[in-house]
Amino acid sequence: MMKKINFTFVFVAAVLVALNSRAADIPIPDAPVDTPLKTVTDAAAAKRLAWWSEARFGMFIHWGLYAQDGCFYKGTNGSSEHMMRHLQIPLAEYAKVADDFNPTNFNADEWVGIAKNAGMEYMVITSKHHDGFAMYDSQSSDYNIVKRTPWKRDPIKELADACRKQGLKFGVYYSLGRDWEDPDVPTRDGYRSNTWDYPIETNKVFAHYFERKVKPQITELLTHYGPIAVLWFDTPEKISAAESQELVDLIHKLQPDCIINSRVGHGLGDYGVQEQKIPGAGDIKPWETCMTLNGHWGYFKGDEKWKPAQTVIHNLVDIVSKGGNYLLNVGPTGAGVIPQGGVNDLEQVGAWMKVNGEAIYGTTVSPLKTQPSWGRVTKKGGKLYLHVFDWPKDGSLQIEGLKSPIKKAYLLADTNTKPLPVGSGIDGLVRWDKPFITLPSKPLDPIDTVVVLEQ
């Protein structure tokens, strides 16, 4: 699904707007503080980001040993995918979870199909989370899913292949500054380190871990699995500026087209990250909101608080109208299954996207000075897409701040593109920059009916 790419969002001033209540989300503890990118995206980064700027919507997947019993350990609630740290499980004991990790219901084609049917254009999965366990066949560390579990399969390879087959871009998450398996990974004040197995923080030398594990594993991921579209780093913690730069240079040497998020550290990377929140305004630099579909990143037994499809769609539109991407997370079970509640939500989102995807893919920030009270606005070429969340009771949709007259208005879901009446009178004056559009009595879609303006 390739369309003409518009990069103006990189250089357009962001709109100032209060955060819509629909964008509210469940706060997740331990969210890192992100360092802003140093500069506006340069030409090389813009070229790498071309497909990403078109895609706008992707699937995030947190999957690891913590999913085996839904973040419970021997009957004790570990709260989240951080259960090893929350419960301070000794490494030797935590590693035994791998003895039972046998996700025989895993089907890469099925996972990718769920993402594709939801209208997502890319996928990012945890290749190694904070517990240090590699979810792929790492040659530099035997602490991995192929060597330590009875399953003996490489899900990163299978998902990479399935994404290529079904036309999605494929990326990997990598926990950079937290690794509870390695003895040389300090964190700020030791708060997020493995201090129960390795208690003396001053003995930990990040550079040893960086050379022994990080660089070899990043090299493996970029040389064994075909094109990697995104390297999604997390928790830079104690990495130095020189090491961040060295990592960026290594990635671009091995795969020049791979894009990197800002959590590589020290203001580097191609795009910024907002975690579990949507900013009140956009940014002239490329950015992405990553967010959970329920209350947890990894699979948590009993969490059925799925965001309604309406919330997901409104979040997506809100983000895109501010120039961002939406990376929406699911946490598969220890058996290798994406929970049905999440699948049901994504099917509804996909149904809306099949009709209205034109108003999402490849669009840029709203050109209006303020976001309208009735919804959001996206733009592509000479078209404005009015996402009407709240259908006006009087049938009149007021717009303010247009920079050129409307040539035609119609409903995107109306296959006949029947024109809608456009008026220009306001307070007795003819004002083309403040027109009103006469709408049908009821919306075509109660979640978000899209009105297209051609200018």
Describe this structure in words.
The protein is an alpha/beta fold and about 450 residues long. The chain contains eleven helices and 19 strands. It has helices at about 45-50, 50-55, 85, 90-95, 110-115, 145-150, 155-165, 205-225, 240-255, 310-320, 340-355, and strands spanning about 55-60, 70-75, 75, 120-130, 170-175, 230-235, 260, 270-275, 285-290, 325-330, 375-380, 385-390, 395-400, 410, 420-425, 425, 430, 435-440, 450-455. The chain has an eight-stranded parallel sheet with strand order 7-6-5-4-1-10-9-8. Strands 11-12-19-14 form a four-stranded antiparallel sheet. A hairpin with a 2-residue loop joins strand 2 and strand 3. Helix 5 crosses helix 7 (about 155-165) and helix 10 crosses helix 11 (about 340-355). The longest helix is centred in the middle third of the chain and has 18 residues, at about 205-225. It is elongated and about 70 Å long. Residues about 1-30 have low confidence and may be disordered.
Detail the topology: elements first, then pairings.
Elements: H1 43-48, H2 50-55, E1 57-61, E2 72-73, E3 76-77, H3 83-86, H4 91-94, H5 108-117, E4 122-128, H6 145-148, H7 155-166, E5 169-175, H8 206-223, E6 230-234, H9 241-254, E7 259-260, E8 272-275, E9 287-292, H10 309-321, E10 324-330, H11 340-356, E11 375-380, E12 383-388, E13 396-398, E14 408-411, E15 422-423, E16 425-426, E17 429-430, E18 436-438, E19 449-454
Parallel strand pairs: 1-4, 1-10, 4-5, 5-6, 6-7, 8-9, 9-10
Antiparallel strand pairs: 2-3, 11-12, 12-19, 13-18, 14-19, 15-18, 16-17
